[in-house]
Specification:
Elements: E1 4-5, H1 15-24, H2 43-60, E2 66-72, H3 75-86, E3 92-97, H4 100-109, E4 114-120, E5 146-149, E6 151-152, E7 157-158, E8 170-173, E9 190-194, E10 204-210, H5 211-215, H6 227-232, H7 242-257, H8 260-281, E11 299-302, H9 307-319, E12 322-323, E13 334-337, H10 344-361
Parallel strand pairs: 1-12, 3-4, 3-5, 5-8, 8-9
Antiparallel strand pairs: 2-10, 6-7, 9-10, 11-13
Helix pairs in contact: 1-7, 2-7, 3-4, 8-10
């Protein structure tokens, strides 16, 4: 029996995508071998690769000005690769600090240039409870780029509308809310997203990059780390994480089959409304630290009156088939990750449990 998976990543995957992988694992499309065994140059794998690229473009309406890339490894690698390519020695880039992941990206940029903090909402206790308002952004019009993190898994904050950064290239880490809804890709010069939240398994990162921005990249970068290298070779310069791309293709086809990003956004907003509605119903028991306008649709965080009650909450939920609810070690509390593959019915089950828990333990 499968559990209800609220893990923050690697996270829940759509059952049809997994079932398809199971059924094709030993014999992919009648070839007598697994997709894991196919050459990345074979026509069979190439068809999967091209389909996955096309699905990302189609679901998001990626304009012709931009190119979809599949990069091996994680978004954490992109923390270094972005400044390695686009931050000249001695030049400055603006970083909007909204959580642990933006802090990590900022630290990596120090190896290549001079990053500066354009805004931060960190509190004295090192927690983040909101994203900055537009008027709080102290942006440098001469910055090489502005870097932001669209959703913050640890503290449960999210940009509901993206900041205006003028003519400076905008770079976004969208790892934990990529494909939760449709958005205007043209506003960004580069987007990167680790797949293991909404898109697929760990091991592959999706990049959407403006072709002109790629062309401005530094030339003193090893080929393997140069975005232009991967753009010129259609993400096949080296052997890609082919099984991760295959499973991502399955997930993307599922997303399209259920109605695309319009339907996914509707479900995601409904899920978030269920959880936050219950939390707000019992504010003395479920304490939500995030300001309402910054609440994440992907990761709802809250605290209970005591750590003992939080431990009981996690244990009781597990007994009822719900896992992954423990908050990050740096934040504590409870975290409910509601990525695309987590159904509305899954969340209704959790909310029913939460309601019962407060009535019996509160």
């Amino acid at each position: 029996m499968r559990v209800i998976n609220f893990n923050p990543g690697p996270a829940s995957l759509p059952l049809p995508a997994l079932e398809r992988a199971r059924d094709e694992l030993l014999d992919f499309e009648g070839t007598g071998m697994s997709v894991l065994e196919h050459s990345h140059r074979s026509p069979e794998y190439m068809a999967v690769h091209e389909a996955a690229l096309a699905l990302v473009s189609r679901l998001l309406g990626v304009p012709d000005t931009h190119q979809v890339l599949f990069m091996a490894a994680s978004a954490s690698h992109q923390f270094a690769q972005v400044p390695m390519n686009f931050l000249p020695p001695g030049a400055s880039a603006d970083y909007i600090m909204t959580g642990v992941w933006s802090e990590k990206a900022f630290e990596e940029a120090k190896f290549f240039g001079v990053p500066r903090v354009a805004a931060t909402t960190v509190r004295p206790d090192k927690r983040y409870t909101r994203v900055p308002r537009q008027e709080e952004l102290a942006l440098d019009p001469k910055a090489a780029y502005v870097h932001m993190t669209s959703n913050n898994t640890i503290f449960g904050t999210q940009w509901q509308s993206f900041p205006d950064v003028g003519s400076v290239p905008l770079v976004a880490d969208m790892s934990s809310d990529f494909l939760w809804r449709k958005f205007d890709v043209s506003r960004f010069s580069l987007i990167y997203a680790g797949a293991q939240k909404n898109v697929g398994p760990s091991g592959v990162t999706v990049v959407l990059a403006h072709k002109d921005f790629i062309a401005t990249g530094r030339k003193d970068v090893p080929k393997i780390f140069h975005y232009a290298t991967h753009a010129a070779s259609n993400s096949l310069y080296n052997t890609p994480p082919s099984f991760a791309v295959y499973l991502m293709r399955n997930v993307l086809e599922w997303a399209e089959s259920v109605g695309g990003l319009g339907q996914l956004e509707q479900w995601n907003r409904e899920k978030a409304a269920l959880v936050y509605g219950l939390v707000d119903k019992y504010p003395d028991f479920y304490r939500a630290p995030v300001e309402r306008e910054s609440r994440s649709m992907m990761n709802a965080v809250f605290q209970l009156p005591t750590e003992a009650l939080e431990a009981a909450f996690i244990a009781d939920a597990k007994q009822q088939g719900m896992v992954g609810l423990k908050g990050h070690r740096t934040a504590g509390g409870i975290r409910v990750s509601m990525y695309n593959a987590v159904s509305v019915e899954n969340v209704r089950t959790l909310v029913s449990f939460m309601d019962h828990f407060v009535k019996t333990r509160g």
